[in-house]
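Before a computer can learn anything about folding, someone has to put a protein's shape into writing. The three-dimensional part falls to structure tokens, numbers that each stand for a local backbone shape. The protein below has been through that process, and both of its lines are reproduced in full.
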Amino acid sequence: MHRSTVAAEKLKATQQQMGLPELKLKQDCPTRWNSTFYMLRRFLDNKDAIITTLVLLSARLETLTQDEWKEMEEASEVLKPFEEVTVEISGESYVTASKVILLSRSLQKISARYLRSGGPIMDMLEKMNKDMATRFHKSSNRQEQQQQQHHHHKKRRKAYCGVISMNKLQVF
């Protein structure tokens, strides 16, 4: 629909007739976070208008099967929490590492739950889980090391203050 002005105009007219908002379809862009989610949502929200437009245009394209539509719906459901976390993190000017780790672990648990349930989007989920484990494991380890260093310095400072107090008592 992006390459054909005739198809784009026909989609717009179909959306008007169906009482849908006149929205262009979105394309996935690998450098834009959440673009796959937004593309799938827009496509799913306009499913009937797209099917009708293709029929009206007598397009010689293979139409999507019900299973393929279901797969798109499932992928959209899986990607929704990622979109929400991205919006949450992007909306703040300063995000703490602990918040990022907490949110990333939540995403890992959510995707693992979908992975256990099976379904047609298993390949996508497995790749996402592998990528998250690689990326978030590093940041999680880094924060744990920082916390250990902080506690170590805190103990040393407390011990040092205790020695100073003892020295003061010995003076009197």
